[in-house]
Design a protein that fits this description.
disordered N terminus, mainly alpha, 3-stranded mixed β-sheet
């Protein structure tokens, strides 16, 4: 097949992104809204990282995992959102072949890592509530570091498995992607040969992983709530409120992934809207739900703010020794 000649078997050097909408009014609205969301996401997650690193009282397994979640959310929010905002100013939205492959790589790397990290965080809460006497032994520093390493390793292996065949597919004709970023189900349909069975297997694995992980998280939340209900009715309402908030974010992250990847090669109009949830809204909500609602974190942030204010006053008005 002539179209499969060349180093990467591709004659397509760029792809055309259709974006979210053709309406100029909606594009202007999205520029403002998504810019605000992106800035708040980056500042909120960066604040959490600085707070956890700076305050010794937060050097615990739970906040170690939360700080890693904040870092992943900053990455997940940045792989496509800035380009999408810039593309709203252009009539023809272009992305190079290498840029498109990079977006697929980082999307599956960060989502795969976040899935495993969310399971790790759920395991941490399960041990803290169901096995409190053994918590310090089970959730040791080495175990926490191992969970983070495993999260990134699984994310990397997952994204490489998705790209193993994609890089060598012949893209020799159509190059229009009906989305605001490159996603595997949309890109793989543009290949110049019939890869339905292979593509179905590749993409459905992502949906199956997301579905199984979602069920594991749901099970862990149910076990935690049942345990709290049995042992302390006074704490059950607070834990129920916390678990409900956490589950809303988990559902917003996993729901679109499951919907898009369990039924690949079906062009639903809502697919683009669902993609916004796990690339923009979930990284925005995670700091609010997981961390900024936590009283201990808010106290630590006030302490850090007071220390910074005191430092500035000392720097502006130094105290000289009286002779």
């Amino acid at each position: 097949m002539k179209s499969m000649e060349g180093a990467n078997y591709s004659k397509v050097s760029e792809f055309v992104l259709l974006g979210l909408t053709d309406s100029r009014e909606l594009q202007a609205f999205f520029i403002v809204v998504f810019s605000i969301f992106y800035v708040i996401t980056m500042l909120g997650n960066c604040l959490i990282l600085v707070t956890v690193i700076s305050i010794p009282q937060l050097h615990s397994p739970m906040y170690f995992l939360l700080s890693n979640l904040s870092f992943i959310d900053m990455c997940l929010s940045s792989f496509a959102t800035p380009k999408m905002i810039v593309d709203f100013f252009t009539h023809r939205k272009i992305i190079s072949f290498e840029g498109c492959i990079s977006q697929i790589f980082f999307l599956h790397l960060f989502t795969g890592t976040e899935i495993v990290l969310l399971i790790s965080m759920s395991f941490d809460r399960y041990v803290a509530i169901c096995k409190p006497l053994r918590y310090s032994n089970i959730m040791s520093q080495r175990v926490c570091l191992g969970l983070v390493v495993v999260s990134w390793t699984v994310g990397f292996l997952h994204t490489m498995s998705q790209l193993a065949f994609t890089l060598y597919l012949p893209f020799c004709g159509p190059n229009v992607i009906d989305s605001f970023f490159c996603d595997l189900p949309l890109v793989i349909q543009l290949a110049c040969l019939d890869i339905y069975v292979l593509g179905l297997f590749m993409i459905s694995t992502s949906g199956i992983i997301a579905l199984v992980s979602f069920l594991l998280l749901l099970t862990s939340y149910i076990i935690v709530l049942v345990t709290i209900k049995k042992h302390s009715s006074g704490r059950s309402s607070k834990v129920l409120s916390t678990c409900t908030a956490h589950f809303i974010v988990v559902f917003m992250f996993f729901g679109p992934c499951i919907f898009i990847y369990v039924w690949p090669f079906t062009n639903f109009l809502v697919d683009k809207v669902l993609s916004v949830f796990y690339t923009i809204f979930t990284p925005f909500l995670n700091p609010l739900i997981y961390t900024l609602r936590n009283q201990e974190v808010k106290t630590a942030m006030r302490k850090m703010s007071n220390q910074y204010t005191s430092f500035r006053k000392t720097a502006q008005f130094p105290r000289y020794p009286v002779k």
